[in-house]
Amino acid sequence: MLEVVSVSRSFGQTKALDQVSFTVRPGRLTGFVGANGAGKTTAMRIIMGVLSADAGRVVYDGAEVVGAVRARFGYMPEERGLYPKMRLREQIEFFARLHGLPPASAKANAARLLERLGLADRAADPVEKLSLGNQQRAQIAAALVHEPAALVLDEPFSGLDPMAVETVMGVLREFAARGAPILFSSHQLDVVERITDDLVMIAAGRIAATGSTAALRAEHAGSRYSLTLPPNADVAWVAAAAGVTEFVAAGGARADGTASGVAVAFDATAAAAQAVLRQALARGPVERFERVIPPLSEVFKEVAA
Predict the structure, then answer these.
(1) Cα 227 from Cα 208, distance rounded (Å)
(2) Beta-bridge partner residues of 154
(3) 202 contacts 237 by C-beta, under 8 angstroms
(4) Can you tell me the distance from the alpha carbon of 168 to that of 107, in angstroms, rounded to the nearest whole number?
(5) 132-144 and 88-98 are packed helices; what angle lies between their axes, rounded to 10 degrees?
(6) Alpha-carbon Rg for the chain in angstroms
(7) What pLDDT band is residue 251 in, cutting at 50, 70 and 90?
(8) Are β-strands 55-60 and 63-64 bridged in parallel, bridged antiparallel, or unpaired?
(9) DSSP codes, 213-229
(10) Dist. CA 124–CA 146, nearest whole Å
(11) Which residue ranges form the domains of the chain, and what is each CATH number?
């Protein structure tokens, strides 16, 4: 387990981090989100020892993180660190050797990762000949090649096309399944929502919210419910039901051109929503009923923007 404990850091009169604490649990993908300048990169640099903290500490498996422990981590910095003239395969093997892997293991790990990340056919090319998206995947390979104990990635999905995003997501899930804690920052909230187990939201150098992704979304769900009735069903009665304060109805069409059900969104207390459901069932079949859980983008606007 990787823990950031009461970490503060200032640059002159600007307080970049103010008593920041959060946990990255083993075997889980933790998304680190916040607006530009919120403190994400500063916190990651402190975890990796690139910057020192003014106060607080970083702990891994109960012990304070020092140089020997950090050497076991994988890191993808905001500023990419690949050698442009070096061939891709040689470069990934080189990073593995820097972390102490013997030549045979370095070669095998590099080959496996390049294949998994869709770069095997470019392995003999100099990095400068790769597209920006392929360079991004190469940087991820460099962070993973020594099979690190923990992984810290700053914007790993930046510049990737949708297919590459899926590939990288798969690689990170596989790595997390081995039990390592993974912390990554991203401005792509749709990707964060799909891949993360846990979230850390930071705003103006302070932690705004932490917890599992599902729990944070549910916590900010509010009082909106969705009811879907069969096509052409009467839904006007919902607006007049006791406890309903907002009401929006919409129909549509399925992919085959047939009419879809009539969807009703309404605001109500939990008890009033259950009463609406009972009335709907008394009138006929109900295709779907659920509490509306907001996307991560809405939670972010409320909590950390």
Answers:
(1) 32
(2) 185
(3) no
(4) 21
(5) 30
(6) 24
(7) low
(8) antiparallel
(9) HHHHHHHT-TTEEEEEE
(10) 20
(11) 2-218 (3.40.50.300), 220-303 (3.30.70)
Q: pLDDT digits over 70-93, tens only?
A: 889 999 998 877 899 999 999 999
C-alpha distances (whole Å) from 299 to each of 205, 214, 295, 296, 302 are 18, 11, 7, 5, 5
Q: Token pair of 132, please? A: 């920006």
Query: Which residue in the block uniquely carries the two structure tokens 């798969």?
Result: 170
* Contact (Cβ atoms closer than 8 angstroms) between residue 41 and residue 78: yes
Whole-number Å distance between alpha carbons of 133 and 122:
13
pLDDT band for position 305 (50/70/90)? low
What residue type is 121 in one-letter code?
D
Residue 49: both structure tokens together: 């020892």
Give CA angle at 132 (158, 104), nearest 5°. 100
* 3-state SS record for 148-195: CCEEEEECCCCCCCHHHHHHHHHHHHHHHHCCCCEEEECCCHHHHHHH
Sheet holding 150-154, edge to edge: 73-76, 150-154, 182-185, 29-33, 198-203, 206-212
Mean model confidence pLDDT for the chain: 89
Under 8 Å CB-to-CB from 174, ≥6 apart: which residues?
none
pLDDT band at 125 (very low <50, low <70, confident <90, very high): very high
